[in-house]
Amino acid sequence: MDKILEGLVSSSHPLPVKRVIVRRVVESAETPLSQAQCRAMFALSTRLILQGPDSFQRQVGRQVLEAYARFHRDEFEAFFNRGLVLGLLQRGYGGLGSRDPAILDYVQAGLRLIISCPSVLELFALLQVEALRMVCERPAPPLCARLCQLLGDFPQCLPRGRKLSLAFCQQLVRSIAHFQSQGSRESELRLYVSQVTQVSGLLRSIWKAEPDTLLPSLQELFAVISSTDTSFEPSVALASLVQHIPLQMITVLIRSLTTDPNVKDASMTQALCRMIDWLSWPLAQHVETWVIALLKGLAAVQKFTILIDVTLLKIELVFNRLWFPLVRPGALAVLSHMLLSFQHSPEAFHLLVPHVVNLVHSFKNNGLPSSAAFLVQLTELIHCMMYHYSGFPELYEPILEAIKELPKPSEEKIKLILNQSAWTSQSSSLPSCLSRLSGKSETGKTGLVNLGNTCYMNSVIQALFMATDFRRHVLSLNLNGCNSLMRKLQHLFAFLAHTQREAYAPRIFFDASRPPWFTPRSQQDCSEYLRFLLDRLHEEERTLKALSSAKPSENMMSSESLVQETANKAQVFTEAPCTGDEERTLIEKMFGGKLQTSICCLNCKSTSQKEEAFTDLSLAFCPPTSLENVDMRSITHSSEVKDDCMVQTGIVASSPVEESALDTSLAVSDGCETVMNEGILKDHLPAELISENITDSDLYRVQDTKNVSQKPVSENTPSVTDLLNYFLAPEILNGDNKYYCEKCTSLQNAEKIMQIMEEPEYLILTLLRFSYDPKCHIRRKILDNVSLPLILELPVKRTASSLGVVSKGWSVDIEFSDAGENLAKKLKPSAAEEACCPELVPYVLSSVVVHSGISSESGHYYSYARNITGSGPSLGLCQQSKNMALASHGSLLAGEISRAVIENDLDANEMSKEWFLFNDSRVTFTSFQSVQKITSRFPKDTAYVLLYKKQNCSNGFNANSANGLWVNGDPPLQKELMDAITKDNKLYLQEQELSARTQALQAASTSCSFRPNGFDDNDPPGSCGPAGGGGGGGFSTIGRLVF
Asked: What is the reported pTM?
């Protein structure tokens, strides 16, 4: 029969004839045959299966073998024995090699035919050994897939015992690492992917049946991908294993990898790069999950060098994967994490910028819903990066044009995304014994390092930084090559905005801005420092402008005359009525206002007026009614700790006199002597006053017999509005304070009225909390609580022309309000002045500097602040303010109603506004309620300096300059400054990494914990010693006088 069959299949008969004859041969298998005949049929069918030249002969061999083995099972069991199988697996068959998948096809077919025979157990044992040998020989994908299929159908052939099983899994992992696709056509790639899937499926089955093999297999996997051997590159087919690793193991595995001291940086870098390459594998699941988890794990242990190297090396590859739909979701997830966490430098993002526009246009054109959804996510990512690195308009303009029709995320959402994604914001999964060297707090704001009793500077700088318009103006200045104080402030602001550090040490700025009379490392007054700083910045800019204008003519002038000319041009706040806005300094534009003082002689009714510039107003506390009969001269109030209360210097319109400094702060107190600032010269007072030996206090001191009874104190807590109204209230000059009238040529009783003529963009208010006790010769602090209104309305007198000496005086009508304005005096203008009624200009609270302590010689400063832009929360405030003026009666009551309207208008927005507490290095979230209640909660902590932002109808600073390329509202930084920040950010990451490695070495013997920065509504802000207020707040108070 075997000879007939052999001749038939090799004959030239038509194929249908051959099929008929073969069917009859198969049917004859039921007839009894001798053992020799059976072996001959088995040998022939085996030869046809393994060496048949065409598919017909191989099919005939399988049909005959199956039929004769079924009816002659004993004979087939004797034929298909250990020797035959071993020979096939080790030596092959004839010209067919042992590594041909057809061998395994034949073995699997034979096993199915004898599965019920006892001899199959011997074959199972043989195959357990042979399977391990075969995977150790690194079979090609087709053979390995065929072997795994056989082992999947016959799990009895899998190596048994823990050692053999582990060895098999590990060697199979290494075999996958050697896989390479044999073609590039789609059909070939599909076949290759299916073969890899077959192999990884077997490993999944083994891991599920024997969980003990999983972790060693993964260790082997990491050993393969972390190898630094350049002669071998593991296959991306290893990505097929990731989907079979339980996600619950992520935390344990990542912690093990990132904290293992035996894993070198080069190995970790190589492993991470190869895992990112796995994003190319089309059917792999969860690859992006593991890649992101490893990136976060490395950030948690501060291995930033690895993260920087890998990001710069692989970011373009990840971006290119966005072109392929099968791997796009995972690639976008990894790309987003890599870009958003790489916040110390724009280098990674800028590698992708040239490719963004093409990708956006491509997906716009294909019109698929999946592409539209993808574009929304990509656009959000791009906006976040352009917001963070807003200083490159020439790079971003094409991108903005390409995505202009796509939705843009809100600024709050962008900030939240950036704050949560930075490497220094990654929450560590390590035990608490490894303290986290955190970067910026979750607020996204940067603290300032206390350099030794420099909290007075830190609190002021943070308040100025949070003055959005001022900050943007400073950052926009072109100061390259200039070593001015403004340049140093710009440097400091840029670092506060872009550094990755939790707190920045402002040593250079402190050395440059410290007043020369301030003793280093000692307590100082923040208000005095603020005035000195603004004055320095103003004078410096004026001097530079004067030098610039004098430069063309310097060759025609002697050096002596040039210096004199420069000094004349640099005088501060020259009151020329035609001064243009372009001639004003930045300090004048932001903080400068004008105050008019009118003194009317009650004898001849002549009035003398003068205007003076101010950068802040010093508000005295209202005297209680119980002090009505007390000689107020026995109590001297001062605005500052060290004689920094301001004398109101200025110029009388009829006799202009140049002023000496910009730091002119205006203080009026109830019978309280105004203390002369050491830096202000008395010889700038009007000459006619000095000639008559009239002291400065004679002119500006509030009369001790001033009608105190007309200023009753509210039973409720006084507000800043009350203090401001008291500041602007009319004053009768009599007794020792009589006014020298030029017309009467004698001392006369007079009435003094102060009015604000020009309001500043930022209104600085200093509360005069320190009073001098002449008996004890110390400065005591007034701990009275003051209510801080969110909205403050500043009465400003509008004039059609500059005012000179007015012949006709003011008539005064002083009344009381029953609606809480009981401290205010109502000014009733005469008919000639009806057109000059004050206008209520609304201001919104921007920041509050708080002093904690009971005396000026000790304590601590910290500040509350929030972002306020020029446009403000409600543009409706502008129109409201224009429609409100002080009428003759009940005008401030109307102001009270308008204020309530405005505050109600802001209530809805207030909860969404973020208030921050800046306490040196520590920055936390807080709320406006905490700001209002600070003194009631901590009696020694009192508001000292307030910044209010004027609500303009249009923003004074165009945040959309450069065609909208200032994405985050701040102007682009100059290259020199951006390079310095990038360099420092890299240095900071290296410092953190070094410190983390040192801590890791000590982790076994040390135990510590950290307190994360969080919401600070319930925690006291902290104190600086026994005299400080507010409690500990998480800070050590031992041995500290001031922070």
From this structure: 0.60
